[in-house]
Every structure is written in C-alpha cells, then in structure tokens.
Design a protein that fits this description.
Number of domains: 2
Order of helices and strands: HHHHHHHHHHHHEEEEHEEEHH
Low-confidence stretches: 1-6
CATH architecture of the largest domain: Orthogonal Bundle
Structural class: alpha+beta
CATH class of the largest domain: Mainly Alpha
Strand content: 5-15%
Radius of gyration: 24 Å
Number of strands: 7
CATH topology of the largest domain: Endonuclease III, domain 1
Distance between the termini: 70 Å
Largest sheet: 7 strands, mixed
DNA sequence: GACTCGTGGCT
DNA sequence: TAGCCAAGAGT
C-alpha cells in the first residue's frame, strides 16, 4: 500500500541518534502549559492552537481557553461566538469553528490516529501529534520544524508537499523504540530552539555529527524555499457610528474574511478616491479621523483607515452596542484596535 | 498541487 | 524595516 520508496537511513535509524536526541530533549525541554498534563483534551486544544502559530503567542490563549472550557463536555455546550471571542487575535478562525464542530461530534477524544483524522480541523500532523503524545501511538508527526530538521539532517532536495511525506517516512523509520510523544516533541523542540530557520545553533545541536547539512555547510540551503509573491496592497476604510452612547457594528457574512465575527462598517478604498470619500459611501457624514491600522492577511497588506461619525439615528441594518458589550464581541485584530481607540476617544471627549 | 486563511515575533 | 515564518487544514 505504501508507495513511498523505503529509504535506508542507517545514520538516523540508530540507537546513538535516538539517545542523543531524547537525552537532549529531556534536559532542555521548555516547560509549557500543555506539558504539565496528560489530559488528551488539553493536548488536543494545544495542537489546534499551535497550528501555524508560535508557542509564545499560544500560551495565554491556551490558559484562558482551558479555564473557560476545562473539558470536552464544557466545550460541547459552547456557542460559536463564545469560542470565537476566546480565539480572537489568534487568527485562522476556521480552527476555532472546526474545533467546536469536532467537540460536538466526539463523545471523547479519539484515541487513535485514524479516528482523530476523521474530525474536522485535524490533519496528518495534528492526528499524529495527539495520538503519539496523549496515547503513545507510534506515529511520526511532521510539522514545519521537523521538515527543517530532517531536510537538513538528510540534505533532502524535495520541496513542498513531497518533502512532508518524505520526512514522515524518515521520522517513522528512525523512531525505533523511542517514546513516540517524546520523539516527535524532541524533533519539534530542536527545530524551534536550535535548528532554527536562520542562524541555526549547530554548536549546541545534540545531533550535529549526524547532520549532512552541517558536514557540508549547507544548512541555509534547507529546506528548499518556495518562491514568495509580494503582498498585494489594499486600502480599507471603516466608520464607527456613535449615537446616544451606543456604537453600530455589523456581523461579517459567511464567505468573507473573518466570517461570523463583528466589525465596524467597512469598505474597500478605490485608487481613485480618498479613504474619507470611501467611508462616506457607507452612508455617514461629518467624519472624524480616528486611527490608521496596518495589518496583513497572508498575501495582502492592508491599511485600514477608521473614522468616527455621530449618527443622527441608529441605522436598523446595524446592531448597536455599548462599549462594554463591544468588549465581549469577537472581532478581527485590526477592528479590535479601532474599537480600543474609539473607547479612549469617547472617554476623552 | 496550488490557494486560502490571521496574526505577531523576529531579524 | 520589510519580509520571513510559525507544532497546518480544507478545498
């Protein structure tokens, strides 16, 4: 069934390599909140939050999330807005939506790789990570860190998706009788702290003598980088309508960025108009400039111009909230910055 | 296989 | 600083 050509890598499939890696991990592993527990639920939450997100960023979100939803039963009872509120600022909000869907599907955290794979939001990496860390299943988990570590160890010239399968095969074959959870985490930890993208700390690497890239001084060549496009520039304008102490917002429709979250009425600014002209197109007058926020969404870099408008009445197509209520709404990061600025502006006037 | 989806850390 | 990148998954 496995079409992957069996790769013989005696220099990695050895007790010496495993011992060097695991010993290093046991004395250098960072103390992280999700490492203080064997609770499969918490390990699941951490792995979802860690997708494409740095450890440092995740920590406070993880702490708040498991405090609010300490187990699967508690999460299952949550609503999507509640989960999105706890997730706001973390990005990739589909993760939060899929997590909630998965929690409602699963009676308990699935204990095997194949069962985990069936849940929405859980792919090859995450299923392998949870299965190995929480349940000891012998399954290689390959994330960006592991791809970098193994592509350097073996000087693998493959790129993109081929590299991932390739590294899975290598890791699986080299795991031997090591503890699967420790094995996977050791490779990731090594990639995150020593075998970094730039300026790898090879002098501190426990497996440097096994590394072909180190031997040939080609660390910077691996993994093979894919060409990146220049971000496209966009300009957006939004208006914070204020009327009798309330502020008007709208819920973002499905199919758009940040679907299901809340924002101030927003529009694109055409190259032929000014931000204020575009903002007036939203149906407001007497605009006062509030804040300019620069943010980005993958290949777009966006400049968001925000304005305050004293509305004559509360437009019915908007929902009107007090400042305190706005604090509870799930909002995109840039919009949250505008909301914070508005709060201070209103207080100071 | 190539795109899409967020945000902040780091250099 | 501008750009790269992060414990990826879904389509």
């Amino acid at each position: 069934m496995l079409k992957t050509r069996k790769r013989r890598l005696p220099h990695l499939d050895s007790e010496a390599f495993r011992t060097a890696l695991i010993d290093w991990y046991e004395s250098n592993r960072r103390e992280l909140p999700w490492r203080r527990t064997n609770d499969p639920y918490r390990i699941w939450i951490s792995e979802i939050m860690l997708q494409q997100t740095q450890v440092k960023t995740v920590i406070p979100y993880f702490e708040r999330f498991v405090q609010e939803f300490p187990n699967l039963a508690a999460l299952r009872r949550a609503s999507e807005p509640e989960v999105l509120s706890l997730w706001q600022g973390l990005g990739y909000y589909r993760r939060a939506k899929n997590l909630l869907v998965a929690a409602k599907i699963a009676k308990s955290v699935p204990q095997s790789y194949s069962e985990l794979l069936e849940l929405p939001g859980i792919g090859r990496y995450t299923a392998a990570a949870i299965a190995s860390i929480a349940f000891g299943e012998r399954r290689a988990a390959v994330d960006g860190n592991v791809e970098r570590v193994i592509s350097r160890l073996c000087c693998i010239d493959a790129s993109a998706s081929k590299l991932k399968r390739n590294c899975e095969s290598v890791s699986q074959g080299a795991m031997g009788d090591a503890n699967p959870g420790d094995w996977n985490q050791a490779l990731m930890e090594l990639g995150a702290t020593v075998c970094r993208p730039f300026e790898p700390q090879c002098d501190k690497c426990p497996v440097a003598k096994f590394c072909k890239a180190n031997q040939t001084a080609t660390q910077s060549k691996y993994p093979i980088a894919k060409p990146t496009a220049k971000p496209k520039k966009l300009v957006h304008a939004c208006v914070c309508p204020v009327h009798k102490g309330k502020v008007g917002l709208c819920k973002i429709a499905s199919g758009q960025w940040w679907a299901g979250m809340w924002e101030f009425p927003r529009t694109e600014v055409d190259t032929t108009e000014t931000p204020m002209t575009a903002a007036e197109r939203l149906g407001f007058a007497d605009l006062q400039g509030l804040l300019i926020v620069k943010h980005s969404v993958t290949q777009y870099s966006i400049t968001l111009h925000s304005f305050v408008a004293r509305a004559k009445k509360q437009k019915r197509e908007l929902s009107w909230f007090s400042q305190d209520a706005i604090a509870e709404l799930p909002m995109p990061a840039a919009q949250r910055k505008v909301a914070d600025a508005l709060k201070h502006a209103v207080i100071s006037t």
